[in-house]
Hints:
2 copies of one chain form a homodimer. Chain A is mostly helical.
Amino acid sequence: xxxxxxxxxxxxxxxxxxxxxxxxxxxxxxxxxxxxxxxxxxxxxxxxxxxxxxxxxxxxxxxxxxxxxxxxxxxxxxxxxxxxxxxxxxxxxxxxxxxxxxxxxxxxxxxxxxxxxxxx
Amino acid sequence: xxxxxxxxxxxxxxxxxxxxxxxxxxxxxxxxxxxxxxxxxxxxxxxxxxxxxxxxxxxxxxxxxxxxxxxxxxxxxxxxxxxxxxxxxxxxxxxxxxxxxxxxxxxxxxxxxxxxxxxx
DNA sequence: ACAAAGTGTAGACTATAGTCTATACCTTGT
DNA sequence: ACAAGGTATAGACTATAGTCTACACTTTGT
Lengths: 120, 120
């Protein structure tokens, strides 16, 4: 698919997608058979990858971190053990974030109790 | 306490604290009895408030959102019902974030399974 | 009394992550 | 064939959240 379809299906602007591509989060392929243009084609599987990027961003990972993870993942320079290790580090980071969220959540729930008791 | 103590105890730089103060997240009080300077004094209770700001930031709230919440909270313009409502909205946002984290976590855990099965 | 360290303000600078504009070329429908 | 719309690239611009510098004044230790 071309950039506009990718944009529609991922609900990211063409600008943002190009920014991500230039950043190195993914890349499209120019059809070598076509000499008249250099339109880039994006694979069906990219949809899922972009969705993951979106999720990762929303939960607070930076583009640099996401790129690092994707690079490691698709490099084939990493052994299976290393890949598992990389993933476990990220899982630990996520668990830490979940804990923080639960702390702030508790703070807010306590706040509601205070209000209901008239302490505020 | 003065700014340097606040900085040490919150582990935020003086620059950042001044930025937050100027942003309106909190404010120090100038001692009216002292005419020679306009050093600002910060209340003991601010430590906890700043910690909350730090937590909220880390879990992805922007300064604008945090300011909105704090303003509502300390405004006394809100009825108890409104306050509870505001808090419930934030709790719902946090729950959504936790769900997202769990989704990405699952993705990574599945990734580990793939690696272990040799799919990657 | 003097130097060193603390405080306040303003404004410049940086990094991250876009977002937009201009320009030029290409494709498609009629 | 031609207008309308799609694509690529480069570079300018924006917003958020700091971070740093310069300058002036104040406080404190010796």
